[in-house]
Amino acid sequence: MKMVVAIIRPFKLDDVKQALREIGVQGMTVSEVRGFGRQKGHTELYRGSEYTIEFIPKIEIQVVVPDDDVEKVIEAVIGSAATGKIGDGKIFVLPVEEVIRIRTGERGPTAI
Predict the structure, then answer these.
(1) What distance in Å separates the CA atoms of residue 61 and residue 31, rounded to the nearest whole number?
(2) Do 73 and 67 meet the contact criterion of CB atoms below 8 Å apart?
(3) pTM (predicted TM-score)
(4) I need a surface site. Which of 15, 22, 47, 111 has the fewest CB within 10 A?
């Protein structure tokens, strides 16, 4: 099993969620996060004062899927989150040793 973590633009959340549902992903965790990469923040004006926003608002989506589904998830995220501009985000794939459903005690892929 693998955990796929995608950091995306906030306005792309609905598109990514729909794309993941279409390929059969049943559950996900979504968090509002802030950070920067190559985008490195930007400058804004507020009431005549200029200030720098170093940490850009993003959305983090986490899904755990069987190894066989990882590429489908990656392609779905890329296809639905990409704008072609700097700041589109990143995808990380991490190994998952075990999954346990608390309610039933199920373990492994059936607990996803």
Answers:
(1) 7
(2) no
(3) 0.86
(4) 47
